Request: fold
Amino acid sequence: MVDIDGVISLFGFPNPALPAPRPGHIDGSFHTIDGIPHFLSRTAAAHLLILAEHFGLVWCSGWEEKAEEYLPRLLGLPAGLPFLRFERSQGAGKSINGHWKLDAIDAHAGGRPLAWIDDAFNPACHAWAQARPAPTLLVQSAPEQGLTSLQARLLEEWARERSPAGA
Reply:
């Protein structure tokens, strides 16, 4: 499960509307998506391309189908990835499970193992992950850094530990 804002679309550094103030250690560029400026991290995209060898990536973001419309073209990410739809009437934090994404994640993942990359976990997410019968890994990103190489290695190792041959 891959969130976008705070994982691929970075924010939290000074004045993201200006092209100059971007994180110096992160390769990326500004794009306007539906009239909103986004700094899209090519660094995070490169990590996701490697992780796609180990995981079935699923967009887990309020972007929903917009992820498919923009991210493959702008970042070279795989096209045709599934995305989750979220119940809009619930609003943030109004899920039965205590976080607005959990009901959709439960419905999609069922009893399968899953890893979830997001910048906005709350205590309900951690309780939910611990209570799941299937292995579950939550990977917290910082919104100004996105998916880092350290987190990508953690995810890759976690996937290898669960693969049939350990490969």
